Amino acid sequence: MLHYHRFISSMLETAVHWQMIPENPCSRIKAPKSDTGETQYLDETEAARLIQALNDEPPIYRTVILLLLNTGLRRGELCALRWGDLDFEKGTLQVRQSATYLAGKGIVVDAPKTQASSRVIRLPASCLPMLRQYRATQMEARLAVGDQWEDNDFIFTAWNGTALRPDTLTKWFRKFIDRNDLPPITLHGLRHTNATLLIAAGVNLRTVSGRLGHSRAATTANIYAHAIQSADAAAAEAIDDVLAPKPPKGRNPAVS
């Protein structure tokens, strides 16, 4: 049922784009939940495969996906980012808006879904040169279109400087996954991947919650229970190695 809902919604969204109908009726229907109820995420090996596959992709999509993996931003938050939200000196990114696409209205940029969603996060060091390089590429594209460029200061844009539509990004990512035979995962699954890898690396749950923009750490704990359980098992093994170390191979522990 979920598959057919997505399929029909995709068809109707195309009809809206072609101006055959004013809006997508599926947007008013709650999508059925997945039978598994499991959170989609990639492990370290799968994430590395995805990153490798990005090498031959256009700079805008390569930068978008790497930023999502490194920050855990929501799709709408990423599409609403402006260069003024990025502080290269401090290495921080301010999340203060979210973008959505509404039929008949276009892209609407508004405050994020909750107060906790407005946040400042520190970027990994590898993201800064990547964003500088992408900015140079964007400036070249801006010069190429001349006065057709709309200067809205958005980081990720369409060809004329307007904000990148969130659904455009989702459609590209779906094709990218299929084209490279990568594990089936949605764009939102990159957010889950970021959180899962942070928890597995031992990052404090409250810190992970703050980076994701959750209002409560309990919300993060409920969503990522699988990662917490894995981290807890690793912690048990670590303390066991400290307090009850195994004897070296070839030595009888009964002989002193």
How is this structure best described in words?
This protein has 256 residues and is mainly α. It is 48% helix and 8% strand. The chain contains 10 helices and 5 strands. The strands form 2 sheets. It has a 3-stranded antiparallel β-sheet with strand order 1-2-5, with no helix packed on it. Strands 3-4 form a two-stranded antiparallel sheet. Helix 3 (59-71) packs across helix 7. The longest helix is centred in the middle third of the chain and has 19 residues, at 127-145. The chain starts with a helix and ends in a 13-residue tail after the last helix. The mean pLDDT is 84.
Sheet with most strands:
3 strands, antiparallel
The termini sit apart by 66 Å
Task: Calculate Rg over CA atoms.
Answer: 22 Å
Read across the widest sheet, the strand sequence of neighbours is 1-2-5
Count up the helices.
10
Query: What would you call the shape?
Result: globular
Beta-strand percentage range: 5-15%
Element pattern in H and E: HHHHEEEEEHHHHHH
Number of strands: 5
Question: Poorly predicted ranges (pLDDT <50, ≥5 residues)?
Answer: none
Please state the average pLDDT score: 84
Helix content: 40-55%
Structural class: mainly alpha
Walk me through the topology.
Elements: H1 2-17, H2 44-53, H3 59-71, H4 75-79, E1 86-87, E2 92-95, E3 98-102, E4 106-110, E5 119-122, H5 127-145, H6 166-179, H7 189-200, H8 205-212, H9 217-223, H10 225-243
Antiparallel strand pairs: 1-2, 2-5, 3-4
Helix pairs in contact: 3-5, 3-7, 7-10, 8-9
